[in-house]
Amino acid sequence: MTETPDLDDAVTPHVPRRRTSKLAIVGAGAVGSTMAYAALMRGAARTVALYDINKAKVQAEALDLGHGIQFMPMAQVVGSDDIAVCADADVVMFTAGAKQKPGQTRLDLAEATISLVRKVLPAVVEVAPDATYVMVTNPVDVVTYASLRISGLPPSRLFGSGTVLDSSRLRYLIARETGVAVQNVHAYVAGEHGDSELPLWSSASIGAVPLLEWNGLGGRGGALTSEVRERIAREVVDSAYQIIEGKGATNYAVALAGSRIIEAVLNDESRILPVSSLLDDYYGISDVCLSVPAVVGAKGVEDRLAVPMSADELAGLRRSAEAVKDVARQFGF
Ligand SMILES: NC(=O)c1ccc[n+]([C@@H]2O[C@H](COP(=O)([O-])OP(=O)(O)OC[C@H]3O[C@@H](n4cnc5c(N)ncnc54)[C@H](O)[C@@H]3O)[C@@H](O)[C@H]2O)c1
């Protein structure tokens, strides 16, 4: 009688059986705890660990999420003010932020955030040395650059959530304008996650139609003229301010965008996402963390796409790179 081969071993004989995946989230505030919820709902990781200096808050968030596991894909949730809770994570999402105090400028805030990263990140890397690190805390491009320098991690394994959220806002607005499903809109926001970001209109498409050739569908809006595109681009930048003014924080869409990144890494998807990574001669742009469409998989950021750009877009990307470098320089990076 012949022995039945183990199916897993037969298909992937060289790959050892994988242990379950662990996601650690640093900072259990509005963004961190919603990201945990989104990742759990999507079954992104088998263990979700929350770490925060606010012990009561992190324990309460973990307990509340844990009570919902019965209704989600199977998982375990733990929360602690002890960094050891992050041990052996496969992915670490860094959402801990310094709260803006009255009278504090954005630059002051960046300074406080960088000193927070200086204190917390090395300790997390010590307990989770093999993880892929995704920075979310703002100003994310500068924080990502500083974090690379502080941690010494390879740029493929530490990057920022970048304009994944901004691109989903862009697609939402294009879908609303044209009356087609958001899933059929393909468009990226590149550059800084902030005021100098820019939509890459010349490579965008709706279904198989180049966006710049879109003439509308009967009764579903018209062409995306330069006025319409400018309005949409402005709305993408302003939407975070609008949401923060209305409810104090943005949390749902950023959490879903974050979960998308986590899944791309944990499932080794080679997914194209506009994350913020250290550029090295990308159209001549180097030594700055900036978002451009990149391939994200188990090794983190594996490649960047040489997206065809108009002269205006390229100039905009270069301006954005300078804006981010300017801020980084002010902090000695
Ligand atoms: N990149 C993006 O797309 C994006 C989108 C939304 C928000 N953000 C940023 O995410 C960050 C968090 O936003 P939020 O609304 O969740 O803020 P929040 O104030 O609700 O949460 C921040 C959490 O960090 C914790 N924290 C502070 N210092 C800590 C430390 N030393 N160690 C561990 N935890 C610590 C706080 O206790 C708090 O729970 C902000 O910087 C925000 O600007 C980024």
List the helices and strands and how they pair.
Elements: H1 7-11, E1 22-26, H2 30-41, E2 47-51, H3 55-66, E3 76-80, E4 91-94, H4 106-127, E5 132-135, H5 140-151, E6 158-160, H6 164-178, E7 185-186, E8 189-190, E9 198-199, E10 205-206, E11 209-210, H7 226-247, H8 252-266, E12 271-273, E13 276-278, E14 289-291, E15 294-297, E16 300-304, H9 311-330
Parallel strand pairs: 1-2, 1-4, 2-3, 4-5, 5-6
Antiparallel strand pairs: 7-10, 8-9, 10-11, 12-15, 13-14, 15-16
Helix pairs in contact: 2-8, 4-5, 5-9, 6-7
This protein binds nicotinamide-adenine-dinucleotide.
Describe this structure in words.
The chain has 333 residues and is an alpha/beta fold. Helix content is 41%, strand content 16%. It contains nine helices and 16 strands. The strands form five sheets. A six-stranded parallel β-sheet has the order 3-2-1-4-5-6, sandwiched between helices. Strands 7-10-11 form a three-stranded antiparallel β-sheet, with helices on one face. Strands 12-15-16 form a three-stranded antiparallel β-sheet. Helix 4 packs parallel to helix 5 and helix 5 packs across helix 9. The chain is globular and about 55 Å long. Mean pLDDT is 92; it is low at 1-5. It binds nicotinamide-adenine-dinucleotide (NAD). Nicotinamide-adenine-dinucleotide is lined by residues 26-32, 52-54, 57, 95-97, 99, 116, 120, 136-138, 140, 161, 165, 193, 249-250, 254. Residues 26-32, 52-54, 57, 95-97, 99, 116, 120, 136-138, 140, 161, 165, 193, 249-250, 254 line the site of nicotinamide-adenine-dinucleotide.
